[in-house]
Amino acid sequence: MKVWKNVLSARDFSKDDYLQLFSLARKLKQGKSLVLNKNVALLFFEPSTRTFNSFKIAAEKLGCNVFGFSSKEGTSLLKKESLIDTARMFLNYGADCFVLRHKKAGASLYLAEKIDKPVINAGDDSHEHPTQAMLDLFTIWEKFGKIDGLKIGILGDLRYGRTPSSLAYALLNWKVKLYFIAPETLQIDKRNDDMEYFLEEKKANFEKTSEFKQLLNELDVLYVTRIQRERFPDLTEYEKVKKSYAITKQDLEKVKNNFMVLHPLPRVDELDPSIDESPYAYYFEQAKNGLYVRMALFTLILKNEN
Amino acid sequence: MKTRTEKKFLVRKIKEGIVIDHLPVGLGFTILKILDLVPAKYTVVLAHNVESKKLGRKDILKVQNVWLEENKLKIIALLAPKATVNYIKNWKVERKIRMKIPKKIEGIIKCPNALCITNDEIEKKFIKTKFEVLKSNLIRCKYCGYLMSREEIASNLSKGNFFVYSQKF
Lengths: 306, 169
What we know:
- The structure holds two protein chains of two kinds.
- Chain A is 36% helix and 15% strand.
- By secondary structure, chain A is an alpha/beta fold.
- Chain A has two domains: 10-128 and 290-302, Aspartate/ornithine carbamoyltransferase (Rossmann fold, 3-Layer(aba) Sandwich); 130-287, 3-Layer(aba) Sandwich (Rossmann fold), CATH 3.40.50.
- In chain A, the strands form two sheets. Chain A has a five-stranded parallel β-sheet with strand order 7-6-5-8-9. In chain A, strands 2-1-3-4 form a four-stranded parallel β-sheet, sandwiched between helices.
- In chain A, α5 (130-144) packs across α6 (162-171).
- In chain A, 49% of the residues are buried.
- The mean pLDDT of chain A is 91.
- Chain B is of the alpha+beta class.
- Chain B has two domains: 4-98, Aspartate carbamoyltransferase regulatory subunit, N-terminal domain (Alpha-Beta Plaits), CATH 3.30.70; 104-159, SH3 type barrels (Roll).
- Chain B is built from four helices and nine strands, in the order αβαββαββββββα.
- In chain B, the strands form two sheets. In chain B, strands 2-3-1-4-5 form a five-stranded antiparallel β-sheet, covered by helices on one side. A four-stranded antiparallel β-sheet of chain B has the order 6-7-8-9.
- In chain B, α2 packs across α4.
- The mean pLDDT of chain B is 85.
- At the A-B interface, α4 of A face β8 of B.
């Protein structure tokens, strides 16, 4: 069985690791209680109310002390203190584990190399967001009871978004068919992008497409991400793309009965609110599952920290 | 068949320095840029597109009074895995190194991704860049996952300012 320590990339975990995590997350969701009595440092160099609070509450529900910061404002980081010096300060205060969100890709690997405590990557630039992938996958596994054989569409900003990468890496542990749905400018790109290289190395069963409305009727899961305005220098082009990749209730008229729509949230226009009341909307349950998956992670990691 | 003049030109010996042989055609210019020589300080011979039993055609680079350090050897090995580097002392080959593709490249070249932690204004003082060498002609930054082909490395190096450190000969 795996000795859980760092959570830096969704690529670092096997199918058995994910299943071990999901099994524990389900027990915690069903009411199992645990007290770990450890100290968790949350270092969020980039603000994120959702992810920050999900980790904070997860740690507190396990009887842990939580300290750190949710953004750089009001800290000595504005005086240009280095990441490692900042982490060392919290180490001296007794941190047993670190959760890091940082603007620069690879920051969590760098931190893990320098300090001898577990590090959880809570998102680094457009690189990875492994715990998001874990809770996404847990949501799929919980509903379907399996992941093998599913057809999963991942839509939106695939080139610069970190959640699509981590999700794809995690899904490659199962026999799934992946559809990468994006306009050409936001599609995964082999040239400098690790993801497509990795998909080919793993002989993944995947397709890239920009047309998807017909495809919805074949999918089991549609994972929607936001297309960000700042990726488009031309506002007209952005408005055009944004409109053609937004999902409405009408688009879901002929989907499978057990079709599932996921979104890492926050959403803007890409998911119409009329979908919320449909049986396909799982994004709120998905967000709730983040709490239990992060509790499960803390449990697996901090049990080893004695 | 080589003429007498051509043979004399190609095999002219140097007393001390390096001879980089079996470079792919065209790479000689890039390697010369990588060496970053102070202009007019060294004598250099670059033979471009000459006959080669091993490669068909090749480039050869000879530089007097310069010795290559390990870091630059690794880059040459990555860009020209079939090259040979001969260290010449007193007109003789003192050491001959056949290039072998390294498994990793650390602390030598920069990552082109501006958002990689290794390029962060504050952190870059403390972090060594790390690349793993993948089959299929690519290297990958261990921190941010940026992929670079040999051609991109060569192109970046010849534009200058791509090494982590600067060492002028």
